[in-house]
Amino acid sequence: QIQLVESGGGAVHTGDSLRLSCVASGRTFSRLGVGWFRQTPGKEREFVAAVDFFGANTGYADFAKGRFTISRNNAKNTLYLQMNSLKPDDTAVYYCAATSYPKGSRNSSDYGAWGQGTQVTVTQ
Questions:
Q1: I want to staple 93 with a disulfide (CB 3.0 to 4.6 A). Which of 35, 63, 112, 117 is the partner?
Q2: What is the mean pLDDT of residues 4-30?
């Protein structure tokens, strides 16, 4: 089973930036679609962004468009989420995930492997 480990979260102020990283174990990372989700207590896990096998096609939630950028480096087995212009509403635990669907997916149920999450807190 693939292992995913997120890092890069922290406490920042409105308008600041963070770059989240997700390092995958094994040799299967490059064969998977990958994505980022986030979750706030009391709410469903929410899609943030996804990228396909080649790292060429991306998709974003509406709240992420224009502010967040997903990318991957298969040689480093690493997925990234660059987050700019952060808002208090972005406060959540952010998870990376992998799916066998090579183009990625917006549906959390399509992802079979999840990281432990990294906390992002944005204050005014």
A1: 117
A2: 92
For residue 80, the cross-strand partners are 21, 71
DSSP state of 65: T
Check residue 98 and report its DSSP letter.
Answer: E
Q: Beta partners for 12? A: 122
Q: Tens digits of per-residue pLDDT, 30-84? A: 788 999 999 999 999 999 999 988 788 999 999 999 999 999 998 899 999 999 9
Cα–Cα distance for residue pair 38/93, rounded to 1 Å:
5
Widest CA span in the chain: 41
Q: DSSP assignment, residue 22?
A: E
Task: Provide the pLDDT for residue 74.
Answer: 87
Query: What pLDDT does 56 receive?
Result: 83
Which DSSP string do the residues of 71-108 spell out, in sequence order? EEEGGGTEEEEEE-S--GGG-EEEEEEEESSTT--S-G
What is the spatial distance between Cα 52 and Cα 34, in angstroms, rounded to a whole number? 7
**Strands 118-123 and 10-13, how do they pair?**
parallel
